[in-house]
Every structure is written in C-alpha cells, then in structure tokens.
Amino acid sequence: MSESFSNCAFCDVLSNGPHRLILQDDQGFFLLDAYPVSQGHGLVVSNRHVSSFFELTKLERKSLLGLLESAKRWLDRQYAPDAYNIGINDGAIAGQTIPHVHIHLIPRYEGDVFDPRGGVRWTIPEKANYWD
C-alpha cells in the first residue's frame, strides 16, 4: 500500500497476511465481506487509502473494474449466483462507514427477497417503488 492509516480495516488487510485475500493486483484486491448480506458478498478495495471513488487515478479505476470482473467470475464458480448488485457508498451521507474506497459485489439468488425490483433504488425506500 502506498499509505497506511491506523484504524482502517482495509489498510490492515495486506499487513495482516494474504489469507483473507481472494484476488489481488498492483492497485487493489478482492476479499469476502466480514459482514455479508448474501453468500459470497465481497469487496474490491484500492490499495491506496483514499475515501472516494472519484479520487482514484485512471489506472486505479481500470484496475478495480478489472478486479470486479475477475471477482464475478470467481463468485460464479464458487457460488453460482443468479444475479449481482454492484455498489459504492461514496461519502458518509451515502452510507460509507469505512472511509477507504471499496466496491461491493453482492451475489443475488432467486427468491432471496420477496420482490427484488428496484434493487439499489431501495437506498431511499420511500422513493424506490415507482412501478405501483
């Protein structure tokens, strides 16, 4: 990592050993979420400690999106999900609790929720349902 910040769960991952890592390249890594919302829920994380996706360099963004594709293929083989949600909480007001950029890759399975329509629109529940 180019910088290390104390008390950052993601900055500590590489220094705590590679056993938690599933995939890795020069700019980032993929690991399973410690508090998954579905089987196989994982995170693509930048090596460099920056809080916003918009602070990443073009090289970092390209790398993280490549890791996202590789992670999807890995999850397809391991868990065979039916679909995916991909999300970034960018800023505290958007729900970001760890100020280190990371992309959630959430496998979805048929029947995991009663009605999956709207997906990430449910971030603001009172505005999510536009079809009724």
UniProtKB/TrEMBL annotation:
Residues 9-115 form the HIT domain. Keywords: Hydrolase. A motif (Histidine triad motif) lies at residues 100-104. The keyword GTP-binding does not apply. GO terms for molecular function: hydrolase activity. PROSITE patterns: HIT_1 (PS00892), HIT_2 (PS51084). It comes from the Bacteria. SUPFAM superfamilies: HIT-like. This is Diadenosine tetraphosphate (Ap4A) hydrolase and other HIT family hydrolase. It comes from Congregibacter litoralis KT71. The lineage of its organism: Bacteria, Pseudomonadati, Pseudomonadota, Gammaproteobacteria, Cellvibrionales.
